[in-house]
Amino acid sequence: MNANMMRGFTMIEMVIVLAIIGLFAAALTPMVTNYVDQSRVAKAQSDLRTIGEAISRFEKDVGRYPMWSTANALLQDSTANVVTLRGPGNLPTETSTTAWTSATPTDSDCLNTCQFDDLQNQLLTNAPAYATASTLAKPFKWKGPYLDSSADPWGNSYLANIIRCKSSSNSACFVLSAGPNGRVETSFTVSKTTSINPAGDDILYRIK
Question: What global pTM score does this model have?
Answer without folding.
Answer: 0.79
